[in-house]
Specification:
about 70 residues; mainly alpha
Amino acid sequence: MDIQKYISSGILESYLLGMLSEAENREVERYAQEFPEVKKELTAIEEALEIYAQTNAIAPIHPDVI
C-alpha cells in the first residue's frame, strides 16, 4: 500500500468531515492505528480545520438587535 498516495487522496479530510461510509470510517481508523504517518496527518488536518473554523467564525446576532 502506498501510504502517501492514501494520505493525499482526500479520504482523511472526508473522514474528519463525516462524509464517509461506515466501512470507509473503519478503514481510516484501522490505517491510523497501523501507520503512524496516517495518524499524524489526521491530527494535522483536524488542527487545521479547527483553526479555519475559529478564524472564520461569525458571532451570532442577538434577536433584540434585529
